[in-house]
Design goal:
The complex is a heterodimer of chains A (about 725) and B (about 160).
Chain A (H helix, E strand, L loop, with lengths): L1 H9 L1 H4 L5 E9 L10 E4 L5 E3 L5 E7 L2 E9 L2 E11 L4 E8 L9 E2 L7 E2 L7 E4 L1 H6 L15 E4 L2 E4 L14 E4 L2 E2 L18 E7 L4 H4 L7 E6 L7 E11 L14 E14 L2 E12 L8 E14 L3 E15 L21 E18 L2 E17 L6 E17 L3 E16 L3 E17 L4 E14 L2 E16 L4 E12 L3 H5 L2 E3 L2 E3 L8 E16 L3 E23 L4 E23 L4 E15 L5 E4 L6 E11 L2 E10 L22 E12 L2 E8 L7 E3 L2 E2 L4 E3 L1
Parallel strand pairs in A: 1-7, 13-16, 31-34
Antiparallel strand pairs in A: 1-4, 2-3, 2-5, 5-6, 8-9, 10-15, 11-12, 13-14, 15-16, 17-18, 17-43, 18-19, 19-20, 20-21, 21-22, 22-23, 23-24, 24-25, 25-26, 26-27, 27-28, 28-29, 29-32, 30-31, 32-33, 33-34, 34-35, 35-36, 35-37, 37-38, 38-39, 39-40, 40-43, 41-42
Chain B lengths: L10 H22 L11 E9 L8 E7 L7 H4 E4 L9 E7 L3 E10 L3 H6 L1 H6 L5 E3 L8 E5 L4 E3 L2 E4 L1
Parallel strand pairs in B: 1-8, 1-9
Antiparallel strand pairs in B: 1-4, 2-3, 2-5, 5-6, 5-7
The chains are: A mainly beta (about 725), B alpha+beta (about 160).
Chain lengths: ~725, ~160
């Protein structure tokens, strides 16, 4: 009986009687007439929307009769409004829509904040989006390279910080959740991010949600969520070849020179995409070889990635993504000394790590009507690594299984309910952490209400139940309340309050290791950390005029109070433990501005973030500064697009870190001096018959700095 | 969005926004062009430490210390810096001291406590009357005098005989 009920439920779209009307349409490129897959269609002032399939066709079913306004958008195409579209009972309104190419058109729709397609101006939380054009123009091969240029974000030795939430945690316990197509991609043992496994050339867009993550995504999302959405294959066969080759400059000071010949790096990539019947697929192979800018920065890696998108008509779609990555890298920890900052410490010159990562994700969507979708997601993330060093022969085998069922449905035009169930199981076998397993069970529900034509409220909560080695570690309820008021087509306001949490990772609880002269010992009594976050912000997206156009401004004030924040603490006993420090508060503000000048000839971008990261006592009095956070981050960029040429110059400024943990500055000798980061980059691109030729110089003026104590920042490198 | 199509967009807001954007861009640009404060090669002394003989059981590690004066009874106040500790059994290692220009004295000391603990509690340990440090007898303590000159990195190997 149960089986019959499930079958009836699953095949409901085929047997449902259509008393309401439908909109059916096709979308093509205005010039070539080629059908466009993946175009976003939103019904204005409702929560309804869909996407075109491989043939450029869409259908929104089960609509009440009346007039609708369709907002059509796609990266690289001019946004289009189609109105009025009249829907009559029992009938299907047919549309043929043509979109005009506009290379400057950025993302207009996101999916991460509310687990559903939303107009970016109607999102109730702070969100930044990175488009594939930005990744291409900056010749990005590792996503972490571009993150410090996003308002509210910075990195410390590769560890991403969204509004300063993570600091630097010795590679364990990120407070930012990385998703790949909506499936978590954090390591099981350390909860860390391996940026190298992300196929940056195959990204559709990257969505960064900066608050309220736990109510939607649970643990690790308390500081925010980075969702990398991979592209689907286009409707025409396509082969891409990419070669990036470059060299690192010699240090500007003779004393720091350490090798006879410059260090080189080469990234070679081949991607083929094609439709296969109604389905589509792409496969990509990449090899990456680098001598590195310091003695232990070398790397050899191979990466094979593929994605198949299934289309079984309008109602059933699915996808399988697979990625295998293997590498050998220098095992870097600290420099030899300040007199030789690019050299490995004595006896560590051959230290290395070898590893592999396998990631398989899949989803299956069932569309019941224009506004009811069942999504089934699953994922496997298997990680193996082994260190080869005289002082560190750690190894780990980690795997993670993830499953999720999500149902999203609309009640009328003004209410949307999204609910889901999540199961995640991890297993770790590691020398430094021991053998452990964990299980997460979670249930969530988000309700979006459109109270007035321009006001929408989102209320949601998620309940997580988390066990380690079969014992209950914690159970947490993470509620969220957020609103968006769209004052006009070009101006919106948002405000939110949310609770978040993060359970400590296996590494934080059970690590037993040695870091320089300091022992790192386990603390199995660690508890989950919690947060309460508030934010208020606004967004402006305006076409402007000929002098100043495509104006995008996003600003926000925010504050998060953390209880039991887990940080590595060097105790008076000379031993590092991860501990729940009493309380902390990170407040601040951020603003990002993008605009074009003089008829889109010149583009100017800037982003500024101010943070006040402090430890506080129970009476909210400030008692100390949190380590590994910059108070001020300012990035600016400007350039010109002139026909096939694009020129760009950008700068990044981060103020001197107020506090670090391991090697504070020695005032008597000047040792371990910390300086602000002040880096300039330059790039020049030319498009020649489909080939993008990009010359890029990073750290143009050879500015020397440390993000992490006794680790020199990247040397100037020139790539083509 | 078609340029100029929004009825609510009036000239007043437009001018205000454009002026604000340009001011913010100018501020950001001028801040980005500030005089940078890049790290530079340090002034100081470096070299190898060579250990000869059998390590005594009483010490948990050995290190070089830089002193600004010669008074064994007042060692804690005179220590300017210390090298990374070497554990018993080490035969050779490297040392490096970043120092301001001036005259200094170099000594080898044995640590009678855990090195991690020593460096964590360095300030209180050095301020105490009972230093857990022992001048290693067979080294030439207080004999190794060196002068640091601006912009130069001196190089001198040190031999410690147990």
């Amino acid at each position: 009986m149960k089986i019959i009920a499930v079958l009836v439920f699953l095949f409901l779209p085929l047997i449902s009687a259509a008393q309401n009307g439908n909109i059916h349409g096709s979308i093509t490129d205005q010039e070539s007439g080629v059908p466009l897959a993946g175009v976003n269609i939103l019904l204005k002032n409702t929560f309804m929307g869909t996407t075109t399939n491989q043939e450029g066709v869409f259908q929104i079913s089960n609509l009440s009769s009346g007039n609708f306004t369709l907002i059509i958008s796609m990266i690289g195409y001019e946004k289009k409004t189609v109105a009025p579209v009249t829907v009559n009972p029992g009938k299907t309104t047919e549309l043929e829509i043509k979109l005009k190419q506009d290379i400057l058109a950025g993302p207009e729709v996101i999916v991460t904040a509310s687990r559903k397609k939303q107009d970016i101006m109607e999102v109730p939380l702070s969100v930044s989006v990175i488009s594939p054009r930005e990744l291409r123009e900056k010749s990005v091969t590792d996503l972490s390279e571009i993150l410090p240029f996003i308002p509210g974000l910075f990195t410390v030795n590769g560890q991403v910080n969204i509004r300063g939430a993570s600091g630097y945690t010795l590679g364990a316990g990120d407070r930012s959740l990385l998703l790949l197509d909506g499936v978590p991609l954090l390591g099981s043992a350390s909860g860390n991010i391996t940026w190298a496994v992300i196929p940056t050339s195959e990204i559709e867009q990257v969505e960064i949600v900066k608050s309220g993550g736990s109510a939607v995504y649970g643990s690790s999302a308390m500081g925010g969520v980075i969702n990398v959405l991979t592209r689907n294959a286009p409707s025409q066969p396509e082969t891409r070849f990419r070669l990036k080759t470059g060299l690192y400059s010699e240090p500007v000071y003779d004393q720091w020179k350490w090798r006879e010949t410059p260090g080189f790096y080469h990234i070679l990539e081949l991607t083929h995409s094609r439709p296969v019947g109604n389905h589509s697929a792409w496969v990509r192979a990449q090899t990456n070889n680098s001598d590195g800018f310091n003695q232990l920065d070398w790397k050899k890696s191979y990466n094979l990635t593929g994605k198949i998108k299934y289309n079984f008509g309008q109602s059933y779609t699915g996808s399988i993504f697979g990625n295998y990555y293997t590498d050998q890298v220098g095992l870097s920890s600290l420099w030899r000394n300040a007199a030789h900052p690019f050299e490995a410490p004595q006896g560590a010159k051959k230290d290395r790590s070898e590893g592999s990562k396998l990631n398989i994700n899949g989803f299956f969507n069932i569309l019941y009507s224009g506004n009811t979708i069942l999504k089934i997601k699953s994922g496997l993330y298997d990680v193996h690594w082994q260190n080869y060093s005289t002082t560190n022969d750690d190894f780990a085998d980690e795997n993670k299984l993830f499953g999720e069922i999500q149902l999203s449905t609309g009640i009328g035009k003004s209410t949307q309910i999204t609910t889901g169930l999540v199961v995640q199981k991890t297993r770790v076998e590691a020398r430094a952490f021991g053998n452990h397993s964990s299980l997460t069970l979670a249930v969530y529900m988000l309700t979006q209400l459109r109270l007035l034509k321009r006001l929408s409220i989102t209320a949601g909560t998620r309940f997580d139940y988390y066990t380690v080695d079969g014992n209950l570690l914690d159970k947490k309820l993470s509620p969220q309340l957020a609103m968006n008021f769209r004052q006009s087509d070009w101006l919106s306001w948002r405000a939110s309050v949310s609770k978040g949490f993060r359970v400590p990772t296996v590494a934080e609880m059970f690590i037993s290791s040695q870091l320089n002269v300091f022992k790192v010992e386990p603390n199995p009594d660690l508890e989950a950390e919690t947060s309460t976050s508030y934010e208020f912000g606004n967004s402006i997206v305006h076409p402007g005029n000929w002098w100043i156009s495509n104006i995008k401004i996003d600003g926000a004030f925010f504050s998060s109070t953390f209880d039991g924040l887990v940080e590595p603490i060097l105790g008076d006993d000379g031993i590092i433990h991860f501990e729940n420090i009493t309380r902390a508060r990170i407040s601040g503000s951020e603003i990002g501005i993008k605009q074009n000048l003089i008829g889109d000839l010149i583009f100017l971008n800037m982003a500024y973030t101010w943070l006040n990261p402090v430890k506080i006592n129970k009476r909210d009095q400030v008692i100390d500064t949190l380590s590994y956070r910059y108070r001020h981050n300012l990035v600016t960029s400007g350039g010109t697009r002139l026909g096939r040429f694009t020129g760009l110059i950008e700068s990044r400024y981060s103020s001197r870190m107020d506090k670090v943990q391991l090697f504070p500055e020695n005032k008597r000798t000047g040792q371990d001096k910390r300086v602000p980061i002040h880096v300039w980059n330059f790039s020049f691109a030319y498009n020649l018959r489909g080939w993008d030729i990009i010359l890029r110089v990073d750290n143009l003026f050879q500015y020397y700095y440390t993000e992490l104590e006794r680790n020199m920042g990247t040397e100037r490198n020139i790539s083509l | 969005m078609v340029k100029g199509s929004i009825s609510s967009w009036n000239q007043k807001y437009q001018n205000l926004m454009i002026v604000s954007i340009l001011i913010l861009n100018c501020l950001a640009g001028s801040y980005s062009c500030q005089e940078p404060d890049s790290l530079k090669p340090p002034t100081g002394i470096e070299g190898n430490i060579l250990y000869h003989g059998i390590w005594p059981d009483s010490i948990q590690a050995a290190a070089l210390v830089v002193l600004k004066g010669l008074d064994e009874a007042n060692l804690g106040d005179l220590i300017v810096d210390y090298s990374n500790p070497d554990y018993p059994g080490t035969q050779n290692s490297e040392y490096f001291f970043q120092l301001e220009p001036g005259v200094y004295f170099l000594a080898a000391v044995g640590l009678e406590m855990d090195p991690g603990l020593f460096f964590t509690q360095i300030d209180s340990v050095l301020a105490s009357d009972n230093l857990p440090l022992v001048i290693l007898d067979k080294t030439p303590p207080f004999q190794s005098v060196f002068r640091i000159r601006a912009g130069l990195l001196e190089n001198a190997d040190q031999v410690i005989n147990f």
